[in-house]
Structure formats: structure tokens, C-alpha cells
Amino acid sequence: ELLESEMVHFARALRPHPMTLQQILHLTDPAALRTFLLEELPIRYARRVQLVESLPNWKSYPSMRMIRSLYAEAFRRLRALTQDDNEDTFRRTLQDIKRKNANMLFHVVRGARAVRTNKSFTDDQVNRFLDEFLTARIGTDILSSQYLSITRPDSPTSIINPECDPVTVVRAAANDAATLCRHHYGWSPPIDIVDVGQVRFPFISQYLNYIMFELLKNSLRAVVERYGSRQAAEAYPIRVVICGDQDTVVLRVSDCGGGIPLADMDQVWSYMFTTAKPACEEVAAANSASSESDDEDSDDDGVAPLAGFGCGLPLSRCYVGGWLELNSIPEFGTDAYLYLNRSGNGQEALRTDIAELPVPESLLANGNSCDAGGGAPLAAEL
Ligand code: W6P
Questions:
Q1: Binning pLDDT at 50, 70 and 90, where does residue 235 land?
Q2: What is the ipTM score, two decimals?
Q3: Ligand 1 centroid to 12 CA: how many Å?
Q4: Which mutation among 213, 219, 226 tests ligand 1's pocket best, with the greatest number of atoms within 8 A of CB?
Q5: Measured from the CB, is residue 260 less than 6 Å from ligand 1?
Q6: Which phi-psi region, left, alpha or beta, contains residue 196 (left: φ > 0; alpha: ψ -120 to 50)?
Q7: What are the tens digits of pLDDT across the range 324-366?
Q8: pLDDT digits (tens, 9 = 90+) for 135-180
Q9: Is the CB–ligand 1 distance for residue 112 below 6 Å?
Q10: For residue 348, which of 96, 256, 316, 382 is within the disulfide window of CB 3.0 to 4.6 Å?
């Protein structure tokens, strides 16, 4: 059908334009941004459709069919718009796509775990599929959010905070994690925040909050399980150091929670693995027709568990763009290092190393910027 062949064309012949936070921060003219997005978003959605289709036998997985149809629909709706439609129509379309795709993480992780169980792929291949898929998703989400933010009727602003203050963000994340910890265990280990530098840099505060919340939840859980009480843990506070130079902001989270066995260090970055529930939970859910809960993170009491969906760490790494590192001293503790580009000039890591169809040279010649796909840039990307 016409839409299908147009989608194939967008996916294969056109290339997305990887962006930097600095570039997005300066996309403040709604009309100009809309013109750009009317072309850019369909390219990105079409590639997401192709990524799903690159999985052998994808049609036999309900989650994969669902994901594919959500992106095909987003593609169709954007292509149905023209420059002549007004800003409000465009705005409502973006909002609607965002709303309809709200449970995408749940669907794609569930689908990927099902694919994995059926042995068509290795853990490594499935993890790379999810890294690419979710990194790309974060990129489109930032671009859409930027448009929605700068056209907000009340207070138009960028999705990127040009003066993001990591200390403030970490304090908030630490408070939230501690509250959750107290809810589940009745107490929470101390968290020391060491602010050395008075750093301000362009970043998406919500993303930094999410990453630090994930890291701190892990540290809190480890310390709680190692020392039975606040009193016993008092001498071993979780320490967050925030510092850096002109180029890089570094955040280190250190805990004395007993560390991670070195043999398990790979699993920490796997979407297939979770300490909380069996890794095949999604498959079981998919197989029993009854369970259609979209609620990915809830306990019986409706409060988020301290260890939940099992994707916090790999997903955090997608939000950073690649430089989140975990070092363990077994039987002692764990250090997490987060490196962020202070200038906001790190390019979005649109990975193209898997599931990529060769693009004819002739199609690349005319000005579409091409993503080299190599190397992990120093973070701050989408
Ligand atoms: C742990 C396990 C972990 C994962 C991520 C961050 C910190 C920690 N601490 O024991």
C-alpha cells in the first residue's frame, strides 16, 4: 500500500539528523521547529518500524505487532499533516502520539523478553536491539517534548535546562529514593551529598533525576540488606560526589552495600535480567491472555517497588548516552560513575550497528546528514 512503501522509503533513503542538546536548546521558533519535525519525526518513526521488522518472526509476538502499529500510525498521522496546518493541529497531533505511546517501554521490554525466550536471539542481540530502540525513542521524545514545551500556552520554555544544577536534582532524587526505601523497609540509610564544584550545565533535569533515582534505589537496597538497621548503617553512608572540569560533569554514587559479584557484572546491564522477579515474567504475562495490565511498576499496595521492572540501569544508560559505569568491590561495595558532557555538544547516539539495511550510496549523496554510528560520545545526548 502507499503508506507502507512511503515508510520504507523514509526508513531506507532518508537519514535522521542526530542532534546535540545545545542544538535542541536553541530550537525556539515553533514554525521552524515544526517544519523540521514534519520531516524528521517520520524518518525516525519509519526506522523504528524497520527495526521491529528486522526481528525474525516478529509477527508472532503481540507486543511487537503492537509496537509496529503504534509507530506506523504515528508515521501516518504526521505525514497527513502539511505546512498549512496550524501550530495547534501539529501540537495536538504530537500530544496524541505521545499519549498513545506512553506504555512503549513496557511493550518493547515484554516483547524482547518473549523473543529471547524463544531462542531466536542471544541475550546480547536482544539487549542491543533494546539499547538502539530505546535510545532512538528518547531522541524522538526529546524533540517532541521540545516542541510541546516551547508552545506551552502558560510558560513556554525548553525541555533542556540550560542551567541544570546537579546538586538540586540529586537532593530531590535522594529524598524520593529514601521515601520509597522507608516505605518498604521502615528505615533508610543516610545519603551524603558532596558538592565540590557549583556546577551548572545544560541538561534535561528530569533525565538526571531518573538516573540518580535508579542508582540511589540500588544503593539503598544494597545497604539495607547488608546492615539491618539505620544505626548499623550510620557509619556507611551512601556518598554522592558531584564535580568536574570545564568539559565534563562527573557524579559518583558510592555505597558499602557489599558490592556485586564480579561474575554478575554483565547481567547488571541486561534487560533480560532482574533481581526482583523471574526474567520470564513478561512471557508468562503474554501467555496468559488474562493479564493485560499496563502498570509496569506497581506493588500490591500501588507503590513502586524498590526493585521493579528490572530495566533501571540499562535504561539509565540510554538516557545518559553511554557513559554510565559501574564498578564493584565484591564483599565491600559499589561505585557508579556518571559522566556528562558539560557543554551540551555531545551528539545523540542514534545507533545503527544492528538491523541496518545498506543504504545505496546515490541516496546518501544529496545533503542528508549521515549518522556514522561509531563510538560512544561523551554523553548528554538523547
Ligand atoms: C549494589 C548494586 C548496585 C547497582 C547499581 C548501583 C549501585 C549498586 N549497589 O549493590
A1: very high
A2: 0.96
A3: 40
A4: 219
A5: yes
A6: alpha
A7: 999 999 999 999 999 999 999 988 877 544 333 332 233 233 3
A8: 999 999 999 999 999 999 998 999 999 999 999 999 999 999 999 9
A9: no
A10: 382
Report how far ligand 1's centroid is from the alpha carbon of 104 (Å).
Answer: 26
Mutation test residue for ligand 1: of 181, 218, 225, the one with most atoms within 8 Å of CB:
218
Retrieve residue 121's grid coordinates: 536471539
Residue with CA nearest ligand 1 atom 2: 218
